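Forwarding these from the shared drive since the link keeps breaking.
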Amino acid sequence: MILYRAAMAALVPFLTVLTLVQRLGGRVASGALAQRFGRVARPQATRIDGADPGRPAVWLHGASNGELASALRLVRRISAERPGLTVLVTANTGTGVDLARSWGVPGVHAALAPFDTRAATARLLRRWQPALLIVIENELWPARLAAVQSAAVPVALVGARMSSRSARRWARLAPGLMRTTLGRLTLVSAQDDASAERLVALGLAEDRLGPVVMLKSAGPSDATMPPAERGHDLPRDRVLLAASTHPGEEALILHAFAAARAQFDLLILAPRHARRGTEVAGVIAAAGLAFARRSEGAAPPPTVDVPVFLADTMGEMALWYRMAGVTIIGGSFVPLGGHTPYEPCGAGSAIVHGPHMENFAAPAAALARAGAAIAVGRTGLVAALAGLDAARQAELATAARLALPPDDGIEGIVTRILALLPATPPNGQKNGTSDNA
């Protein structure tokens, strides 16, 4: 731990410069550096957006869009059970902060996460005085958790994922640091049994384990685009979605779509990071295909003569899932481990993915056993799309729903989390300080 703290102290000047110059969510974020040092003001004096400053706060942290998107229903459930609750959501990226701000959940405030130093974390803790820290998936920052433990704040790790590769690395390179870090967790809900077993093997006490819950298993919301905002209507089986794509995937998918025009009239191309919109627009233009951009106000499809719709905005993925008869899962044709199959499955969209689904190995295996998804290599995408007529799409979508039923286990983890919160706010509780530390 001492070596880790020394390393982080050496990195802070570099991270400071990086925060000052990087473009966060397509713009330079106001107050980004102050937030990185834990200077995030908590609303005081009056109710803000339905939140009651007299009640305890919850601090929820997720790395970026993917983790926070999966945490939305957890936030909604907790907020529904505790009306007036104030929730601080932090992320490592500006796009993650923007996503949390777009939720419209009363009492939710969003900011960049503090650097992983005890001083930055302690500063945020003094200002917000959270009654609980909820961490999503893999965000186990040692110095942050040490500071939270020193402040006697319980920590719930939800959707915890520990791959066999990561477990081997921790066991080989820093077993003591991992054991100490896991010892600071009050409650751990893994996203699968294998992750739970690996966490216990790395030093997590078994009595800290809660129910196994895959947060992303509920699928997208029942979002629909208002008729006034829709472009030209197309049958769902004529719409292809490429969801959460990464560099190296867009050109491949555009080529396959162009070859499958007999089957699809529209490709909705949704890059994982909206800030890549201009970059992806260049890739589409290089492919010789007409396109429109959501960030410029277009609705899909704008006309029958525009075959590609660039969905370079945030918070609208549920719309695209429900419009598309087929979804290509991004991050699976490059070695990034793939993104969630649960959301297209829940929306009734047939699933196509590449060879890299390590992040969702168990659900991908379940889909494979049921013949409920098409798994192909980079060279097989053209042929896969050509065979996806309306009947085949419906067959795959039905099989996927049976293979990946929604996981209702979230109620169990909500109950455990609520038990960690004080039943009522202490009389005279102060909600933040004006410290200048």
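-- next protein --
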Amino acid sequence: MENNNSNYLISYRTLRQLIGVLGILLPFLCWFVNAFVNHFGLLNNPFFVDMAQTAIYTPGTDLKGSISDFYYTAAGPLFTGILVTVAIFLFCYTGYPEDKADDRYPWLTDVRVTSFAAICLLGVVVLPTSSTEKITDNIHIFVSSKIAGTLHLCFAELFFLSMAIMSLINFRRHPGKTLINDATGKLYRICGWGIISCLLILGINQLMDNSGHWLWGKFVFIMETVMLLFFGTAWLVKGESIPTQFLLHKLSDNTSQK
């Protein structure tokens, strides 16, 4: 019986770590794959593409203004594949059985939050981002409408918001209707509030007339990457990964020295 329970715990930790790793790697993998394909001209290479039935591919910039913009590039299949995989993992994640009588937020269960987040991710995939400019390196034959793009943005924001709640509340649950406030709890709070802060900054950025010129037009990509780093870190902490365990050890040492 102990052996079965041990295997269960190991697989659950692995699931959490996979969610975290995929979240962190998403922007960097999309950037690398798009740059790799553009650099070697693979989509104009007769060895890979039937040029008689394919239009000439005109590469755009390797790094896009947002992660969602990679949907239309050569990294599009990778982008959608990772999002769908994370969504499936989130659907599979049910968390530990909870004692509602001993829980401050009995209605905010792990399975409800992760299922909602998974639905939002699928919404991001089904409704791609729109564009006000012509996409020269579009590997598809269409561009989403403004309505679909707005829904895409809403799903993305709701996903990050649900993951912030997961980090601030669900990961910090503790018996006695309390939330953990040790080094682990502090790191969860940093991740949760970090995501919310980035969402607020992005909201303000959207209201500014010159928002597209911030950081060479890559401001949204940078903020999304930061949010994914917070998201991934929280899941890696929950999965007790080696890097985050080392980080927690350092945080505990700093706290004890004060």
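Strands lie at 173-174, 178-179. The chain is about 60% helix and 0% strand.

- D.
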